[in-house]
């Protein structure tokens, strides 16, 4: 069900404290791994973004981004986005990302980056198909092992998302004009791992549910899958390929890749 969601920048300590509480509810970290409100203060103070999504007066989600540089060119690294379980699957994450895009372009920033777990294919669909982002870098164990149940006690491997905000690809995607790809010049296959039942956990993009009943690391199946796709992604990226689509099949999900120079 869609909601009348508003998004606005956050600047006060009370608002940042609310973000921390949402993050604890979404990720389930222990106090050791929970990022304190001062990190939101720093992001806001140094020219990044802290954005809140509201259902009426209730904050139901947030995004935190830091400012970064590629050479002399500024970009935003969107470090966290969380949506309350009560408001999942209601386009809150999409509202946050589109506001993030508008705010960045208003300031002359044309690129937003973030990371996501390639095992979370619903996140992949949202990032690549719905937002028009691409991926050209695979980062093994980016955050190390954490206490969050969402990370399942395995290395926190991540794909790095590049969201080039004013490209035709992105404009087409956010206007719902980009269909799920049918043909893949190359692909990395991920078998069906996620549960079909709704989960009550959050995600880095705030747009998809994270899995709750993955195989345990002890049976090695999840680690073996992670190890295989780590090698495949790394090999394709070394050849100049990029992830440009995500395709569902009855056997799982295909990450579609093509030479970056082709688009």
Q: Please, could you describe this protein's structure?
A:
The chain is of the alpha+beta class and 263 residues long. The protein has one domain (5-262): Aminopeptidase. Helix content is 28%, strand content 30%. It has six helices and ten strands, in the order E-H-H-E-E-E-H-E-H-E-E-H-E-H-E-E. A seven-stranded mixed beta sheet has the order 1-2-3-4-5-7-6, with helices on both faces. The protein has a three-stranded antiparallel beta sheet with strand order 8-10-9. Helix 1 crosses helix 2 (37-45). It is globular, with a radius of gyration of 18 Å. 39% of the residues are buried.
Brief digest:
Strands 1-2-3-4-5-7-6 form a seven-stranded mixed beta sheet, sandwiched between helices.
Keywords for this entry:
263 residues, alpha+beta, Aminopeptidase, seven-stranded mixed β-sheet, three-stranded antiparallel β-sheet, 30% strand, globular
Sequence-ordered SSE layout with sheet pairings:
Blueprint: E1 5-9, H1 13-27, H2 37-45, E2 49-55, E3 58-70, E4 73-83, H3 92-106, E5 111-116, H4 121-130, E6 134-139, E7 158-164, H5 168-174, E8 186-191, H6 221-238, E9 241-249, E10 252-259
Parallel strand pairs: 4-5
Antiparallel strand pairs: 1-2, 2-3, 3-4, 5-7, 6-7, 8-10, 9-10
